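Q: Structure tokens for this one, please.
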Amino acid sequence: YPINLTIDKRSIKIKGDSQSNRSTIVSRFVPANPNLPIIQVGDNNSSILYHGFRMENCTLLGITGNITGEIGIYLAGGTYESFLKNIAVNGFRTGISIIGGSNVPTSVISIKDSVFASANIDNSRTIYSRYPINGQASGSYTTDIKFNSCHINGPQNNGYGIESDGVSLIFNDTYLDCYENHGVLITKTISYGSNPTFICNNFAIDDSV
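A: Here is the predicted structure, written as tokens:
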């Protein structure tokens, strides 16, 4: 199904029919407009917390013909207490982007039993998180982002499997396959907020691919 969906309501649930982290016809989404995320929750200028977004049993594919989608899932400002389970996101420049808004945070996000792989193009990143650029005055933030039992595949070209700018991430029972020097990039370009750290329990990085 070709879609670009922006969610600005609370307690929205998207549930497909896939029973595994494999592509299935009945729950497969591709971008109608490759320049926009397939799924976006909230936005940078939101002033409302959208509690309770859930997405389960879906496959998002970014490559259609010769066109590569920019973003698979964008959890923007206002995404709060949200849960993704059994999701496959494959073939985007950015698989999932998690960024707090200028006015309200993106926080308390749980991603479980899911598979992510970016497109093998320049400047791609499978997982991207960033502290809000203009959030200091409002006290906005990007925090409490958890990956549980996930498989992350990094790009082969100029990019990273996980890129975090000022955001601490939590990984439990998660495996990152990546190419040498393209695994994890941690930066802090925002002057406020704490230094980013990774909290890991059984988190493996394999750069032998």
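A few notes: The mean pLDDT is 91. Residues 160 and 188 are 16 Å apart (CA to CA).
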